Amino acid sequence: MSVEVLYFAWVRERIGLPRERVQTDAATVADLIAELVAREDRYAMAFADLASLRVALDQELASFDAPLAGVREVAFFPPMTGG
Amino acid sequence: MSVEVLYFAWVRERIGLPRERVQTDAATVADLIAELVAREDRYAMAFADLASLRVALDQELASFDAPLAGVREVAFFPPMTGG
Amino acid sequence: MRLSVQEAPFDLGAESQAFAAGAAGAGAVVTFTGIVRDNGGALSAMEIEHYAGMTEKAIAAIMDEAAGRWALVDALVIHRFGRLAGGEMIMMVATAAPHRADAFAAAEFLMDYLKSRAPFWKKELGPEGAAWVAAKDADEAALLRW
Amino acid sequence: MRLSVQEAPFDLGAESQAFAAGAAGAGAVVTFTGIVRDNGGALSAMEIEHYAGMTEKAIAAIMDEAAGRWALVDALVIHRFGRLAGGEMIMMVATAAPHRADAFAAAEFLMDYLKSRAPFWKKELGPEGAAWVAAKDADEAALLRW
Fold it and tell me: Which residues of C touch B75 (CB under 8 A)?
């Protein structure tokens, strides 16, 4: 399947792009991260510390073990600092 | 001695005036109240329930057993409802 | 810090804007505005009596207390007296602090103390006549949290 | 209820005045305004990134949650993104309720959730360069009280 993957803040800066289309057979968010990390160092750097990362599936906060089936948009970002 | 006595809100309405000069030898606020209550029914009505009254001496909240020596202004009023 | 006890209406927009713009170093500004409730469309009016002289002293003491407890950059209290129609603004409080927790806490503290320790008395003028607003036990209890 | 995620500045005075005037039946209006702190006179700037699309949804969900928990007459959230200079207003929240406790609680709740659950990220641009603002443990902990 194909998902749109978005990156924000320092995740975007480390990976070097704001979004990309990814072909994947990953069953969960964690599987998708493992695939990305295996690609290149810049992904490994961005995903080095999952405790400092958050993920949203179709614009809803989710956990790293959430399934990807049916998901169109995955976003990775640091803890939010609004307000 | 002579003190200025002020009344506010329903205390003022029951007694029928906003302020008056009072000649008194009362040692404490409670003594002053006793003298006023002995004067007329309207004072007795105003001071019938001390739990629903507050007193200020020279514009500072005080208690009913506070001494009156040196005090120039005594004010009686119900619990405040500002804000 | 500024306090004003006045009969005239105040301009919430202008006061809020000027307060926030003047609070150098603040990261957080909180305002509270009290309004005469129009009870279900039946516009009531309110008469606010106060103890001229003591009012300013009591509010200044409350503001000093707040400034001692929290890291405030600035604070403002405006409280009206006299006759107010339903929907009119009775009073406002504004606090400015580097961080939001201090601004919120100080504003709530000021409101709790203004409710029960500043010498104002409200009389509601409704369709069935006039009645002094009774102090609420909850308002007195609110002071215990500080 | 109204929410706006925008790059343009907003007018705190006009927004506060219009919000309070439009909140029929409210006795209490609370506003919170977040401002870019100028650190000791050394004016810094801030770049705010956000997740267009999710931002509005997340804020709307937070506002619905607040409306379900407290007796609110109205609520407003305005949050900016893009580049802001020191002293500029970042965002504001306003709540209107019959009574002050609800207005204060809802405003604090909205702020706590906007801090940690709305997809905004702040980057501070200071004299020594740019740095992403780290989320504070205290902000995450603040959510536990609701």
Answer: 51, 54, 119
Give the alpha-carbon dihedral of B61, B67, B69, B73, to 10 degrees: 30
| Helix (H/G/I), strand (E/B), else coil: C140 | helix
pLDDT of D14-42, one tens digit each?
A: 999 999 999 988 999 999 999 998 876 66
User: Domain A2-77 in CATH: superfamily?
Assistant: Beta-grasp domain (3.10.20.30)
Q: Do chains B and A touch (3 or more CB pairs under 8 A)?
A: no
Residues in D touching A9 (Cβ below 8 Å)? 49, 121, 123, 132
Q: Which of B41 and D128 is assigned the larger pLDDT?
A: B41
pTM exceeds cut of 0.80: yes
- Say if the Cβ atoms of A83 and D133 lie within 8 Å: no
Chains C and B in direct contact, meaning 3 or more beta-carbon pairs closer than 8 angstroms: yes
Domain ranges across chain A? 2-77
CA distance C117 to D55: 43
Range of the domain at C28: 2-145
D130 DSSP 8-state letter = E
ipTM value > 0.90: yes
CB contact under 8 A, D27 and C36: yes
C62: domain CATH number?
3.90.1170.40
Name the average pLDDT for chain D: 94
Domain total of chain C: 1
